[in-house]
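Example record

The entry below shows one chain as it appears in the dataset: sequence first, then structure tokens.
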Amino acid sequence: MRYLKEEELALISRYLFLSMALVVIQQDRRHIEKGQFKIKEHYLELLGKMETTARSERKELRAKMDQEKLQVVQVSKNDSFTSFLFLAHGYEEKRNYFNPAIRKKVENILFDLMQKALHASPQYTQKNA
């Protein structure tokens, strides 16, 4: 039976996938820092802006979830699916997500964060041209 309202599901889902996107950003930063990039500062700056934007949004989502008494917990994971337990209003609702679908949702969030970071930045100009 479905207990979550559409707005609640959207809120919890965004929080969940945004949290996953933050993990990907942090991993990417570590790979770039350790990698053989000739010039890595620009990539690190972009990832830093993406992380700041994501953390800010996640903080707002967490506050809304706390206000509405909503929680999400990972229950299980295998090669194909990951299960989450959504808690709302004293009810529990288990949802299974196909792992490639999770990846696509996280990719979309990363693209969205990248667009926000690029549009918030002043245009890159070539110095001493």
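Notes for this example: The first strand starts at residue 70 and ends at 77. The helical segments are 6-34, 41-67, 99-120.
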